[in-house]
Amino acid sequence: MVEQLGDPGDVLIVNATGFIKKGTRSAGVQRQYSGTAGRVENCQLGVFLAYATAHGRVLLDAELYLPESWTGDRARCVQAGIPASVPFATKPALATAMLDRALDGAVPASWVSADEAYGQDHKFRLHLKKHKIGYVVTVPRNQSLGTGIGYGNTGSRADAVTSDAPEQAWKRLSAGDGAKGPRLYDWAMATLPPHPDDYLGGPGGFQRWLLVRRSLTPNDQGELELAFYLCFGPAGTPLNELVRIAGSRWAIEECFQSATNEVGLGPVPGPPLRRLPPPHHPSDARPRLSRRHRRARPQ
């Protein structure tokens, strides 16, 4: 499938989803925030890796998140069938391992997209920089960026960078097609100075940006909502390309919906999800969507 869908400029997407549970014995279950439910619930959390291209999208890998309340209680782990060799790992660490497996398995991709849980993790971003993989990751509005940055040099927080941006700095672009047509937002970007951790590579090296998305209509409080993205990629990457990468994150939600409808994606009753072998591995027997079930991007 990777050979049929893949292109070197494509995107690997990381996201977690929750599986609501009633009991306490399923591996990794505890009261924790579930983005699926939008609140704290008794649930399991799975970290997933998807691959989005111009030809379709597919789930590549998955790991079950085991909270420290589990890895610190080996008797409980044994009862749930979790091997003693499984240590605690943060969600960004699980995501990093899956990305390494995909790239080591020759999945052609130049970009990674992820939400705040990963975007604000310095080690996660640094790992991608070291491997010269571009990223467009969501960060909180108070993300620290350094001093003297922005249109008015007003501060180091993400929300201060574009606070004085003139209206002409905002460009209306689609982040991809949704159920109701193009996902239109206003976008602005600011070039960030080099960071000591930045690694150069390729013609012209790499560069950092802050990308800001602004809604077109006010919310219930009468405010235009903002979302912030830290970006790293080849120098000179245009705004519309960063917007494309940012918008690709919706593809993993579509994968979740397809997996639920077609193969019954749901809670994990026993031990943690076993890691999937890399593509082309002899034991790679993961289920694949048939050609007629692939979700092609609308033309």
TrEMBL record:
SUPFAM superfamilies: Ribonuclease H-like. Residues 268-280 have a biased composition (Pro residues). Residues 266-299 are annotated as: Disordered. Residues 3-145 form the Transposase IS701-like DDE domain. Residues 288-299 have a biased composition (Basic residues). PANTHER family: TRANSPOSASE (PTHR33627). This is SRSO17 transposase. It comes from Nonomuraea thailandensis. The lineage of its organism: Bacteria, Bacillati, Actinomycetota, Actinomycetes, Streptosporangiales.
